[in-house]
Design goal:
The structure is a single chain. The chain has 152 residues and is α+β, with helices and mostly antiparallel strands. Helix content is 49%, strand content 20%. Among the domains are: 38 residues; 48 residues, SH3 type barrels. The protein has a five-stranded antiparallel β-sheet, covered by helices on one side. Strand 1 and strand 2 form a beta hairpin. It is elongated.
Length: 152
């Protein structure tokens, strides 16, 4: 008599199982969402930035390798390999993915050329010096500061 009553009390309502099972999985879903935004997504962004940095390596860039060696890229062999000069006359062939950081970039091939407009602006600034400047280097820095602040 007591045993049958105990079984009868343990039984749940017949139609309430669907919502309760959803409530059981909700914490797991929330943990996965937090895990994605705190761990997976930042790691994916970091990997994408590293791939982009490695793909833009050029001859003359100073780089840091995974082993902690600082060197300068002497030659880009192919998409996967570069030659790094780690000391005078010492060159090492290594994988691009082993480079962790670019310490100094080389100037682009066309980076040192001035356009006609920038030359004209520079001549105009030199022709009409700003009052109160003693040296040409101060004149150049004040004109750059003036351009940034919107003054002429």
């Amino acid at each position: 008599m007591f045993i049958s009553e105990a079984y009868a009390q343990a039984a749940g309502a017949p139609g309430a199982g669907g919502f309760e099972s959803l409530q059981q999985f909700l914490p797991l879903v929330l943990i996965f969402v937090v895990f994605y935004f705190l761990l997976l997504r930042p790691q994916q962004k970091k990997m994408k930035a590293h791939r982009e940095m490695v793909s833009q390596l050029r001859r003359g860039d100073r780089v840091l390798t995974q082993g902690g060696i600082v060197g300068q890229i002497a030659k880009v062999i192919n998409d996967a390999e570069v030659t790094v000069e780690i000391a005078e006359g010492v060159r090492v062939r290594m994988m691009r993915s082993a480079i962790t950081e670019v310490l100094a970039k080389t100037e682009p091939v066309g980076g040192g050329k001035e356009t006609k407009e920038t030359k004209d602006e520079g001549e105009a600034t030199a022709a009409a010096p700003t009052p109160g400047t003693e040296a040409p280097s101060e004149e150049k820095s004040s004109s750059v500061l003036g351009k940034l602040l919107g003054k002429k």
